[in-house]
Design brief:
alpha/beta; Udp-n-acetylmuramoylalanyl-d-glutamate--2,6- Diaminopimelate Ligase, Chain: A, domain 1; 2 domains; five-stranded mixed sheet; 13 strands; elongated
Length: about 250
């Protein structure tokens, strides 16, 4: 079975995703979060690094897990209970974890936003949604009905999005930020879009969408962020000639 150096893959990913350059939320800890014994023979991609997905990765006999939401969002201590079980399984099964949050969101080709735009057939993309001194989303000008955009999203995500029909029936300036950006709806509207696609948002954004005259599509935090991990794993599979698999563990959120 072919294998590749974990160090080589990590260094390549850090350069490709500009891991050290892109600011992120405290606790994201982008990059290699768990080392293995140094080689990779099979890659898996998933959205969240959890005990459940670690068990799926072990069952799939992989030794590198690519994730969007990594291990360290909450305090890392103490390693007891389920946390201890997870770290024990990682060590015993030689499983490395590489995590990329905003760097993967923002990548112009492999990122969650770019990949979702491609799935929707949206082109002529421009930077959008300035956060932490960088653009992390994408926008485009087009002319598509709200109904047709809903149809495309349903096909791309595998489930119908929640639609907040606060704007016109025609969508002409569409902005996309995958994940949980609904709470920043006003920021998106202030950047000039009439339609905002994201994963999830709070209850009060329904009336805010009406006040702002903006259509909002909530496609699900999990569902909108499967695209980047899949694309990165597929890219690495081709570059290093390694098999890869997607581990689906949907949250429904």
């Amino acid at each position: 079975m072919p294998n590749a150096s974990l160090k080589s893959i990590v260094e390549h990913c850090d350069t490709l995703l500009r891991t050290r350059e892109i600011a992120d939320y405290e606790g994201a800890v982008n990059g290699l979060q768990m080392e293995n014994r140094g080689t990779v023979s099979k890659i898996a991609a998933t959205v969240d690094a959890t005990l459940a997905t670690v068990k799926l990765a072990i069952a799939a006999k992989v030794d590198l897990l690519i994730v969007h939401h990594g291990l360290y969002w909450s305090p890392t201590h103490p390693w007891t209970g389920k946390r201890y079980e997870m770290i024990r399984l990682l060590v015993e099964n030689n499983l490395a974890i590489y995590s990329s949050h905003l760097p993967l969101d923002a990548h112009p080709k492999l990122g969650n936003n770019a990949q979702l735009c491609a799935a929707l057939g949206l082109k002529n993309l421009q930077p959008f949604f300035f956060a932490k001194n960088q653009f992390i989303g994408l926008r485009t000008e087009t002319d598509i009905s709200r109904l047709e955009l809903n149809r495309r999203l349903t096909k791309a995500l595998g489930a119908a999005p929640k639609v907040l029909p606060g704007g016109a029936e025609k969508c002409k300036r569409i902005g996309i930020v995958t994940g949980g950006a609904g709470g920043d709806l006003k920021k998106a509207a202030d950047e000039g879009v009439d339609t905002f696609i994201t994963g999830e948002g709070p209850h009060w954004t329904y009336s805010l969408a009406e006040d702002l005259g903006v259509n909002v599509f909530y496609g699900g935090h999990y569902a909108t962020e499967t695209f980047g991990p899949k694309a990165l794993a597929a890219y690495l599979s081709k570059k290093y000639r390694l098999p890869w698999v997607f581990l689906d563990h949907p949250t429904g959120l």
